[in-house]
Amino acid sequence: MTATPHILITNVTLLTDPDTPLIASQWILCKGTTIHSFGSMDTVPVCHGALLLDGTDKLLMPGLINGHNHCAMTLFRGLADDLELGEWLNEHIFPAEAANVTPAMVYWCTKLAAAEMILSGTTTVADGYFHEEEAARALLESGMRAIPAHGIVDFPAPGVPDPTNNIAAVETFLTHWQGKSDRITPAVFAHSPYTCSPGTLQQAKKLATKYQVPFFIHIAESKYEQQMLMDPQGTSPIRHLAALKLLDADTVLIHCVWLDDEDRKIIQKNNPGVVVCPQSHFKLASGIAKTSEMDNMGIRIGLGTDGGASNNSLDLFREMDILAKSQKARTLDATAMPARRVLAAATETNAHILGLPQLGKIAPGFKADLILLDMKRPHLQPAYNSAFLVYSTSGADVETVIIDGKLVLQERKLLSFDLEECMTKVRKLSRPLGVL
Asked: N or C, where is the chain less crowded by C-beta within 10 Å?
């Protein structure tokens, strides 16, 4: 990974934020970890000693933000496809995790996920899993910005064999990682209201509040989730969380597929963020979240991929395309969830949901988390406006990635770690599962 005091990119087309038109023939200067300034090429500054990058035929935009992932689950990619959620989770994924999740597995499989994300333009990820200290280490070494959230469940879990220690284990994780790196924000991940009791959920939220970190929870993913709740306190999963006083601006609700009007009004009133993972919802036949309605209500909508076992891709460009089109197909309204709102979900809105307001747009003082796309591709011609980023672009179009002012990917070469070593380690870990 190349560290330089300044990076100057010239002759580039800029997308500064989802609501601003593309701007051609621009320069941008990054100093240290932040964006310093940008402008038209007739005002380009002289920067002695800066790393110069030629942006000709390229587009520069904010790095994408993945609002929900289980990075280490790249090990289970393709292991249990074409199954409904309950069978997939209970008969395949949970047993595979019990047999295979170790600190080494989490470290190497998270690194593999990091490589996939960097190569497809994701610069920040919110992760949730077990042995999360190893995920945090892998993400830090990869050069990514991350919110690793330690998992909590009320049964024996990898790294926490005694569930009575689940809250204490997460607090140890938080105290170790908080303040360790500007790129790593530790957090709390209560798996779901069907794997955590009301008391556990309240303790987990109290812990997140104490350390002023995000509180993540899977919610309303399945049509039958209400029947699975541990000691339900309300007549829907959302009303269950509301009764437990878990909903506020620092809570991140993952999935939210099965909501009724009252649920959406409760979310609107309490202002938690909502992160949807449309491809995972499609693959597990969970349904289609009413994202456009929530967006129109002012509910903050973010976007994630979910883990590699249920997607099976970590390419957020692909995810944006599916989010936009799923809402149009669901509503039979071609104007539903327009491209600019989907771009916001994967950048600026996700940044605010995750408590990282200095990310997600190009402006002086914002973090220098940027991606350069190669526009010399047939499928990207012509580019009239930013909608092509949702409907035409793929992660393979990403050429260069800058995170925290450092080059992490240049001309599609990963600079932060040895990808071949990582893939060799993951292939070895996969052999007990039947992979050659």
From this structure: C
Q: Which helix (H) or strand (E) is 225 found in, with range? A: helix 225-228
Q: How far apart are CA 222 and CA 155, in angstroms?
A: 21
Residue with tokens 């002695």: 48
CB atoms within 10 A of CB 365: 9
Pick the closest to residue 349 from 400, 258, 274, 401 (CA basis): 274
In the predicted model, what is the mean pLDDT of residues 4-29?
Answer: 95
Angle between helices 166-177 and 198-211 (to 10 degrees): 20
Alpha carbon distance 147, 153 (integer Å): 19
Q: Are strands 251-255 and 215-219 parallel, antiparallel or unpaired?
A: parallel
| pLDDT at site 435 | 56
Contact (Cβ atoms closer than 8 angstroms) between residue 331 and residue 400: no
If you average pLDDT over residues 16-34, what whole number do you get? 97
Centroid of chain to Cα 314: 9
Angle at 430 between CA 306 and CA 165, to 5 degrees: 60
Tokens coding 97: 């995790």
**In contact, 100 and 138? CB cutoff 8 Å:** no
Q: What distances in angstroms separate CA 175 from CA 51, 59, 172, 206, 353, one per listed residue?
A: 37, 40, 5, 15, 22
Whether omega for the bond prior to residue 382 falls within 30 degrees of 0, making it cis, is: yes
Is pTM beyond 0.85? Reply is yes
Q: Are 216 and 126 in contact (CB under 8 A)?
A: yes
Helix axes 132-142, 166-177, angle to 10 degrees: 20
Angle between helices 103-119 and 419-430 (to 10 degrees): 130
Rounded CA gap, 408 and 421, in Å? Answer: 17
Distance CA 71, CA 74 (A): 6
Name the burial class of residue 127, with classes exposed (0-12), middle (13-18) and buried (19+) by CB atoms within 10 angstroms of its CB.
Answer: buried
% of the chain residues with pLDDT over 70: 99
Beta bridge partners of 54: 10
Both tokens assigned to 405? 């002012």
